[in-house]
Q: What sequence folds into this?
């Protein structure tokens, strides 16, 4: 009777023990392995031991710890059943036995919060080195502790960046940025947030030796199983490579750590803005966002009760000012401020030393907006190369922004001593134009050099023969047509039809002296009929890049049609865009570069 009671009590104890192992959230197969400093719970997230007998992190692995060394030959891929949940089994694809440790590698990666149930498969048993065996009945199902670190994801937004890639709102800002954090499992409290320079450094003294650390060590110090909040030793002195007084010694930097704000669904947010103060403010450059927190698991590792801490990182550029603002007057523009240039066709160059992309917001050249005339040639280098530039002093006013929305305004001036060309803008099709002064080289092929110009026609009714003179381009050679006068020279005072195959600009060097032909007096009389006249600058001061400007007299007053053309019946200009004639009223101003058809009545 006594033995029956003992056997019954033993069976009840075994059932209770199995039940306790099944229900315990961090139950282990044994209490410990060897010495206290090597005692481990059975846990997910490890496979194999390194050379220091430390478990190797592996998200496909499960570490089982027994109270004695296991005979390797008794363990195979089929020895254990792994239940990920009530209905799903994990497939074991590799096993490894190392003393009291049995490692299982699963085909699929375990979830960060996985706590699978392990049991010996039906018909399988394992033995220790002494020959003692354990099977499914002796060792019931055991729930394995969560030894896998959570996966934290950090996404940035809301910066001031207006570009793409590294210059977008998620990678560039001049002041603040939004930090969004997600976790693939619940955390124990909100994660910590640290924004720090990428050049973070500190020195640690260990056993009278100094070890230099950087941002990678900072991240590693917060990633893994820890018994308490991880980090550097108290009193650690950091630097960021900032040397404000240029004494060769980096100034100390003080870390700022904040707690993210919780949002539904394992999400957190934090709005970062730069701190003030000599030791806490971050300077322009690449910054690192380091987020770290722990999950809710607890288990034994190296004799300590630990939790899984994990880091999430991201990076962005802080660009809080226009770095090249003070460089503009140190040769970053051409011509340099206050200089004199003697080139016939000087160009204007503006270069910025910004890391981010610079955009021209406005460039005023002698009061005229020319922003769209600049070409970006390399990086943040812009060039404007006009076909002609007037002699005299020129002022350039520049307003720019970078991709972080920092702005800069500055101006510079220079003096040009070389005479500029007269530039004729031509559209595709027929154009009615004229020159305000005689060309230095009047030959037709010397005046109209652009290969897009196909035909030039002059009308002069005073000739006894044909009033039409025509020159056409055949490849690079000009020739005349039968039954028409030969057009060999271009002169002031006459209008010209110019046919062009495309949009182009034709520069022409004009004589700087007063034109030989003065404009007609208001009382001048012409013979009855049509004339095709040009606009002459009688003062000689509108013969450079003045196409399209109003003709003025010696006092600067606009000259009107009735003053310039005299008593005419009809005056017409040609609109090459719309392809139509436009009547000129007597009170309208005369425009430099126009060719005007005028009809005079009888005397």
A:
């Amino acid at each position: 009777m006594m033995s029956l009671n003992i056997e019954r009590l033993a069976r009840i104890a075994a059932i209770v023990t199995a039940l306790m192992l099944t229900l315990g959230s961090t139950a282990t197969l044994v209490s410990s392995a060897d010495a206290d400093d090597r005692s481990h719970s059975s846990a997910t997230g490890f496979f194999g031991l390194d050379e220091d007998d430390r478990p190797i992190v592996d998200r496909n692995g499960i570490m089982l710890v027994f109270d004695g060394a296991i005979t390797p030959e008794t363990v195979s891929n089929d020895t254990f059943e792994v239940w990920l949940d009530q209905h799903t089994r994990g497939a074991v694809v590799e096993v490894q036995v190392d003393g009291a440790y049995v490692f299982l590698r699963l085909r699929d990666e375990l979830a960060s919060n996985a706590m699978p149930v392990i049991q010996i498969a039906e018909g399988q048993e394992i033995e220790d080195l002494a020959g003692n065996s354990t099977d499914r009945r002796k060792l019931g199902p055991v729930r394995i502790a969560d030894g896998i670190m959570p996966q934290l994801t950090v996404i940035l937004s809301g910066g001031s960046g207006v570009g793409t890639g590294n210059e977008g709102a998620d990678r560039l800002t001049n002041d603040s940025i939004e930090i969004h954090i997600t976790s693939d499992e619940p955390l124990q409290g909100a994660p910590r947030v640290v924004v720090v320079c990428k050049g973070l450094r500190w020195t640690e003294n260990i056993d009278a030796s100094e070890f230099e650390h950087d941002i990678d060590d900072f991240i590693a110090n917060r990633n893994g199983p820890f018994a308490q909040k991880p980090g550097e030793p108290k009193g650690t002195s950091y630097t960021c490579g900032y040397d404000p007084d240029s004494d060769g010694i980096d100034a100390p930097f003080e870390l700022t750590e904040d707690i993210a704000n919780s949002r539904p669904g394992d999400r957190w947010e934090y709005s970062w803005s730069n701190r003030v103060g000599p030791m806490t403010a971050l300077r322009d450059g690449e910054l690192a966002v380091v987020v770290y927190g722990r999950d809710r698991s607890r288990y034994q590792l190296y004799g300590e009760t630990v939790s899984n801490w994990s880091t999430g990182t991201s990076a962005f550029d802080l660009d809080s000012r226009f770095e090249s603002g003070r460089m503009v007057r140190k040769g970053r523009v051409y011509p340099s401020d206050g200089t004199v240039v003697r080139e016939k066709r000087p160009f204007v160059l503006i270069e910025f030393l910004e890391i981010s992309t610079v955009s021209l917001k406005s460039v005023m050249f002698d009061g005229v907006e020319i922003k769209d005339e600049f070409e970006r040639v390399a990086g943040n280098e812009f060039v404007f190369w006009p076909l002609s530039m007037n002699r005299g002093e020129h002022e350039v006013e520049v307003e720019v922004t970078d991709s972080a929305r920092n702005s800069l305004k500055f101006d510079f001036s220079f003096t040009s001593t070389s005479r500029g060309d007269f530039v004729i803008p031509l559209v595709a099709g027929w154009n009615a134009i004229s020159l305000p002064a005689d060309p230095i080289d009047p030959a037709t092929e010397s005046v109209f050099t652009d290969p897009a110009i196909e035909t030039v026609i002059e009308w002069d009714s005073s000739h006894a023969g044909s009033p039409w003179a025509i020159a056409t381009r055949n490849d690079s050679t000009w020739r005349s047509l039968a039954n028409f006068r030969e057009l060999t020279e271009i002169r002031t005072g006459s209008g010209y039809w110019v046919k062009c195959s495309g949009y182009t600009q034709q520069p022409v060097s004009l004589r700087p002296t007063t034109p030989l032909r003065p404009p007609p007096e208001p009382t001048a009389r012409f013979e009855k009929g049509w004339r095709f006249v040009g606009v002459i600058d009688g003062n000689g001061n509108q013969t450079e890049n003045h196409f399209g400007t109003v003709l003025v007299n010696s006092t600067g007053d606009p000259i009107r049609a009735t003053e310039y053309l005299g008593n005419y019946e009809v005056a017409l200009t040609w609109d090459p865009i719309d392809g139509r004639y436009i009547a000129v009223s007597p009170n309208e101003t005369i425009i430099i570069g126009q060719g005007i058809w005028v009809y005079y009545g009888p005397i």
In short: The mean pLDDT is 87. The helical segments are 2-23, 215-220, 444-447, 561-565. The two ends are 155 Å apart (CA to CA).
